[in-house]
Queue: 3 jobs
Job 1
Amino acid sequence: MASADQLKALLKSHIDGDDGHFYAVAMQMAAHEAKLGHGKLAEELRALIDSAKAQSVPSTNGKRATPIIQPRGEMAGLLDASYPKARLSEMVLEKTTEQHLQRLIKEQRHFSKITAHGLTPRRKILLVGKPGTGKTLTASVLAGELGVPLFVVRLDALITKFMGETAAKLRQIFDAISSVRGVYFFDEFDALGAQRGFVNDVGEIRRVLNSFLQMLERDESNSVIIAATNHPQALDYALFRRFDDVIEYGLPTSPQIIDVLKFKLSSFKITKPAWNNLAQIAEGLSHAELTRAVQDAIKDAVIHDRDSLTNTDLKKMLEERQAMKQHQIFNLES
């Protein structure tokens, strides 16, 4: 039988994601069983260890990232799984927003230390902001930084005309949150978290929201839960206190616009850029719109066999994005 110290070391290394130590302890246990004359058990343990090593997913910090467990059956229609490689350094953020995310990442990386003192690391986050300001990318970045899968909850499949079915599916998602560590992303969360006093509200949707609030509050898993909304005014006020942090995303300022353009153009040459002029043209565009404008400029240069961009190239694409945005606003208002 394994000693108490070996079992504790095995569990601790698993929680910490330290596969090197985990396999070392497991091999010690196999060797111990062999010495006791339990040859078959020792052989089975070694075979399991070898199989686990072969299936492991290496990461840059020497610890194995959590492998993706693709949802199956009905869960396959509720969750989209991926393994993002995005990093926080790829985002241009307000200083306070970056500090919030850094703190969450740090607390998650020291999960066992914090819980050993009876405390709970941050892991329930509400992201608020206009489309294209970085909410979805934040979910990918957190998964990438923590080395865990990103599970995007498909609200179109979750919310059905049968509210009892919706609540049952919601329970399935929270069961997955408890059983598989990852970042779980509820995008366009206002569809589920609408205020209970809305005129079009019905008793069943109130019960679904109440179920969600209860599940969120009772959840004590190791997963990170992220909800995002473009319409915070539509959310029920009871939701806000269930989250550890509420982070607001806004449109980039002029200095941030320049940082985004420089970062996105880092792999492509640009001739004598007039950054301040470009920032003025791009004022009001989101991070996503700036990214698309740069990508359009680079694609146009590649198609025409040019190895560099000019100020005029970027200006043209930024102006196109502004025109598209104004057209969308006009259609919404008309």
Job 2
Amino acid sequence: MVPNLRPSIDRRQALQTVACGFGHLALAGLAQQASAATNPLSPKLGHHAARAKRVIFLFMAGGVSQIDSFDYKPTLDKHDGQMREFDDARTLAKTGKIVQHRVMKSLWKFRQHGESGRWASELFPHTAEHVDDMCFIHSMHTEGVAHGPATLFLHTGSTNFIRPSMGAWISYGLGTESQNLPGFVSICPAIANGGPRNFGTAFLPPVYQGTAIGRAGIPAAEARVKYLSNERLSSAEQRERFDLLQALNAEQIARHAGDTEMQAVLDSFELGFRMQNHAPTIFDLSQESKETQTLYGIGDKTTDDFGRQCLMARRLAESGVRYIQVNYSDNSANPAWDQHSNMPKHADHAKAVDLPIAGLLTDLKQRGLLEDTIVWWGGEFGRTPYAEKNGTGRDHNPGGFTSWLAGGGVKPGIAYGETDEFGHHAVQDKVHMHDLHATILHQLGLNHERLTYNFAGRNFRLTDVAGRVVEDILV
């Protein structure tokens, strides 16, 4: 028997049904627009097509010595121990004159790595295995000769004024991919050298402020959002109470129209409620396999702490957080990498971060996340090529140092820019911190000159009135 192939509905019914479907789609679109209008963290379009969706910033507080890590300078070996004059901003600030200092060669041997032949010292053997994925910028220079001003400048583009942090600008410009997690997270930040200003919003609406997870000086294993769960009440009871509180709060908002701080508090309540069902699993690293934990150095006394931060960063990245800062720091005025009189201490810090950083790059690449994630490594400045006070350490050097980027449409396996033969001043293809900010924003789809906010009668931006996109390092 031939089956009846006649449709069960006629053309008129079909058109009516489809029309309802179009209506449903239109309604959904309007609802999404309404949500974006009322929720400042809803995803937003950038100024142009983006190559990257997110940033993981590995902040090495205190200033890693570029000439002991990735900027190989054989001239230092030749002149080791000699007294020479150095035109140094920090010395000039202290003494008002150019003085002689003793040249000090690197304490660690360098060799070339990968198909690209990039140089790296024995301080970073695991990270060096990934040089073919990295873009080294050897010509960085910045503002500020002390940790406080230079750290603020790195985070906010200003050495002394209260300005929004880079993560806050990105959240303001793009919103967040996840409505159940913050758009900007800072893992284990320090309370010194800028403290909360390094993840603050200044005059931007408070909703864009970074969420601090843990703090420097406390083990990363204890870094979590507290009080996310309530074992005494069921989910339905919590939802009922929360809805009542939000209704009462809405009445307060109606009486104080335009109070952005109060609105930000209410938004944080809403986000906190949604996080109850999502954040606990994100921060539960025990869900990762033993192999993955070992990849990051978790379980080893030396690498466990920073390894946990890096793995947490990867989990946040794949869950939709736009900007994640991983802090290797402490809460002293002279943070981690600040070796004025004990350069061998650099080795201890390198051992703590080297394997976790390599693990992060490996993990991101295996998961396909490195393609649209920018990994940014660096500190607020570098170190001098001479021994400070003729001793065994190096002083601050904002005039020439190294940062590196990986992923997110940045050219892999290249070195860009140069310092002089001693590794002191950036001399070729110089990249200012404003330029690096502009370039990272560009990869995220944001024009640094158009990402502005009007405050006190003028438009402000992260890069102030400077900055350029370093096109030569982009794919």
Job 3
Amino acid sequence: MSTRYVAFALGIALIAGIVVLGMNEPGTSPLATDSTLAGTIEIDGSSTVFPITQAVAEEFRKLHPDVQVPVGVSGTGGGFKRFVVGETHISNASRPIKPIEIDLAAEHEIEFIELSIGFDGLSVIANPSNDFLTCLTTDELLAIWKPGSDLNRWSEVRGGLPDSSFRLYGPDTDSGTFDYFTEAIVQQEDASRSDYSASADDNVLIRGVAGDKNALGYFGFAFYSSSPDKLKLIAVDSGSGCIYPSVQTINDGTYAPLSRPMFIYVNVAALERVEVVEFLNFYLDNATALIQEVGYVPLPETLYDEGRAILNASMEAAG
């Protein structure tokens, strides 16, 4: 059986605006009022996408309390390790699936579809007590984070900054955020200095940066948005001036190069289960409202329509 890889690839710079809609009323999809649904939908993967899928799961279970939807946070890479061998039905991802992961899925006869669900802007963060740093260039971020870098004082990063030390915090190597940051900043995926405090859990990184006056780190925009009083957002200059991540700059692509799409991957075999199909329809129907609620940037509604078309086509093919 060959792997079906349906790419719902989206260019951030081409997105012209956001269609802002409230959460759909129950009844949007045929089974939305069917409280007799039961079963377990296994989900794992990206900690960045976790808040979105968790919010969807919580709202879905209000309609279908007998459907269990545990959502793991083992990181994008950790989630794919489980997904490609058939352990999970849905995998949250903050990067596209890699060729080696596609090959592993094929070896285990796992067919899948990819659905884009929204946008994130990787955010560079310092401790609020830092009163001298407002912006870093991509060259400065490269100098700090590249493999073999031994920079550990601000004065080594840029003349005029204090001669005080800093400590680094960031995602671990199983994280799609790590993959994206290293590719965007270091220009080589997975290439990074290793002497930093790493975690697959963004909440651990938040606590680390919030509790360390010498901290500098990076993680998803929604995690900054959830604790703006505990963190300081640092602008990024990629050659066009210092730009802060925001709903507008992430959506229009001006927050470059750290704007990125987010995905869920679905095992096609799971589409034989009515509770999984209903959950996915509910996800797409309510993504706009829930993604904004947790601090990310939704897609235009027409692109969620494309996601529904991909889902329906896959159901028919699997039927």
